[in-house]
Amino acid sequence: MNNEYSNEHLLYLREQNRKAVFINFVRIGILLFAITLWQIAADLGWINKVITSSPSEIIKTIAGLIKDGTLFTHIAYTLSETVIGFTLATIFGILTATILWALPDVSKVADPYLVVLNALPKVALGPLIIVWAGAGVKSIILMTLSISLISTVISVYSGLCSVDEETILLMRSFKASKIQTLKYAVLPASCQSIIGALKINVSLSWVGVIMGEFLVSKAGIGYLIMYGSQVFNLNLVMAGIIILCLAAGGMYFLISTFEKWTIKKGWITRK
Fold first, then answer.
1. What is the rounded end-to-end Cα distance, in angstroms, of the chain?
2. Which of 12, 67, 129, 240 has its CA 20 to 30 A from that of 107?
């Protein structure tokens, strides 16, 4: 009987591995097809290369940035701002959500303000942030926080509040304090929601940093894109977008890897 279960389990794992390989193959195939079609369309004149650029021109532009030594400086500038903004938004977001969970009356008062602040177009705050913090890194970090913090608070708070009420009642029956309930019941049950909030926070942090660099920066990926658009160098603009996609994708991959590690450790389970 055990051998039968073992064989069935091995067959299941092999099938899952085949599906994973097939999905990755299709993903890469679609990407390569799109890039090839883009290059062919540009070479044959189906599209205007001045406006749409082409993969070969983008590669030449990136190679030029590497050659003159500016590419990695711009990447480091933007990446450091994003990591700082992401870290601050995550820490303050989780702390704020925890406080709102622990103080239901405060959460009821804060709820409409959170909704309004989350719906507010953050770019409208740009001029105010520049006046308050100056045209520098501080403004970019504040712009990032204004975009990602409220979303993090709402996501984490929703996860904390979604914990099974019976679990909370069980902890209360054992005379557990708020801190004990949070530590031993709520946070473990909310790990999946917190990881989800981190994934959202990654993308929003990149949005905030790029918006900030559009407004005030003199270096960074956002600066490259803005400068390229001002001088109508679409190759530079597209190169900046590709670099941005790779950097953002790499950071998202790290969060996904962390999620898989927590699943492996048994901290969370896939739903």
1. 29
2. 129
Q: For residue 54, what is the DSSP state?
A: -
Give the integer Cα–Cα distance in Å for 69 and 65. 6
Q: If you compute the radius of gyration of the chain from its CA atoms, what whole number of angstroms results?
A: 23
User: Can you tell me the distance from the alpha carbon of 24 to that of 33, in angstroms, rounded to the nearest whole number?
Assistant: 14
What's the pLDDT tens digit per position in 106-138?
888 888 888 888 887 777 777 788 878 777 788
- Tokens 């480091």 sit at which residue? 76
Q: Where are the alpha helices (DSSP H) in 103-135?
A: 104-119, 126-133
**Cα(19)–Cα(106) distance, integer angstroms:** 48
26 pLDDT above the threshold of 50: yes
- Indicate the pTM of the whole model: 0.79
For 209, half-sphere exposure in the C-beta direction (CA atoms, 13 angstrom radius) is 29
Q: How far apart are CA 165 and CA 210, in angstroms?
A: 41
Amino acid at 105: D
Query: 121, exposed or middle or buried, with CB in 10 Å at 0-12, 13-18, 19+?
Result: exposed
